[in-house]
Every structure is written in structure tokens, then in C-alpha cells.
Amino acid sequence: MKLTQTEEVLMQFIWEREKAVLKDLLNDFPDPKPAKTTVATLLKRMTDKGFISYELVGSKRAYFPLIKKDEYSSNRVSGLIKNFFNNSAAQLASFCTTEKNLSTQELEELRDIINEQIKKQQ
Fold this sequence. Notes:
By secondary structure, the protein is mainly alpha-helical. The chain contains six helices and three strands. The chain is 64% helix and 11% strand. It has a three-stranded antiparallel beta sheet with strand order 1-3-2. The longest helix has 18 residues, at 104-121. The radius of gyration is 19 Å and the shape is elongated.
């Protein structure tokens, strides 16, 4: 299961804060801010999907993530590779290096990352 784009934005705020009440999350949004009821609905949907939970702190709900950011990112990238690049990480890398006009420095950084992974696997 995945989050909608707006839910992902809200999830980023929760990951950054680690635990947050509705008021703080609402303040994290740039202007124009969504309605309080909209954010409350998003939080309920995210709770129902199993991405977050909450604990009562006085009369307020303090929301916290149930899934780690790197775990979610890994699942999303895997889905992207599967759905758009024929399940080939090499095709994704090719796309990124030819379509995104990467600088020489960025390409060298990617090469260094790949070389480091090759060393680890040998």
C-alpha cells in the first residue's frame, strides 16, 4: 500500500518530528495551509493504512510513524523500477544519467557509489 502525494508530504513532517500533534503538523505546511479538518482526515487515513499511529497526550493525539523512511523509500523505488523500467535498476540508472543532465561531479559521485558497492560484493 502506498500514500497519496499529500499524505507523503504529511508523512515527511512526521518523520522529521518523530512525534507530532495536529497543530504542529498543520504549521509545517506552507501557505496557503490546508484546513485543519483536511489534515485530520489525512491522519486518519494514514492511521487506517498502518503508516502511523498515535498516543494520547492529555487530550491531544501525538502521531508517530510505524514505518521507517528508508523502508518506505525502498518500497517506492522498487515499485518505480518495476513499473517504469522493466524491473531493471540498470535501465533506471541509464535514464537518470542520460535524461537528467547530471554534472560531471554528480556522475563521478554515482560512479564512486557503484564502485564501492562492487567492492563490498566481491
